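Reopening this one. Same input as before:
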Amino acid sequence: MSLDRLQNCFERCKSENRAALVGYLTAGDPNPASSEKLLHVLAQHADIVEIGMPFSDPMADGPSIQAASERSLAAGTKMHDVFHLCMSVRKVRPEAGIVLMGYANVAYAMGYEHFAEQAALAGADGVLIVDIPPEESGDLDAALTAHALHSIRLVAPTSSVQRRELAAKTANGFIYYVSLTGITGAEMGAVSDIRDQLESLRGQSGLPICVGFGIKTVEQARSVAAFADGVVIGSHFVSCITEHADDESAMLAALDNACAAMRSAMSKENKP
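Same output, byte for byte:
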């Protein structure tokens, strides 16, 4: 079997005739101890676990994930905690894909080489940095490649043909297609438009394409799973923390139920 866990995830899902569930939570939210339990629940259901690196100015994120970063930072979460949580997920789910997602300042402050080294040691498979365009990502890409980490690229509805071509050329692991023009947690775009955009992207890249931003209901997830390689759920899962802020047991149960419902929607046989 290939050592590329992301590739293996997509191949396994394809063999099971379903899209991959890519689940996001912010590391350290609401605190590092509870976050570890929450990530373990998420990892029981998700094919790929996307771990957010908390940042003080998460400009691409909506209120829900912004609040998650604020709670995490207020609880004292540091990057060594993020790597610990990543390693903890890797131990319980050796076959899962793990992607670290965040902003340039986090990796830049550590130094790209040190960041990539620690991410690889923690068991991550790839990194998605939201605010470094492919034209300016050479130094980070080199560090990630040196440690066998994938560089995940975002493509938006407003991306030019040239930007899409560059993203497709420089990406590896998978391409993350943003389903809307806006921030995370906003309303998802029209399914027919998303499908058309993915068909166009497939002509530019042979990589799997995951769709995220704005997918908050089982019905939306089922619709996108019918044609995407993966469906990214973020704000919907983070809301389980917000809605049960004072009750960890209820928080964990709510996330477990939400993950199970979204996982059941991934079958490509459940076309809308």
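So the earlier flakiness isn't reproducible anymore. For the record, The longest helix spans residues 248-264.
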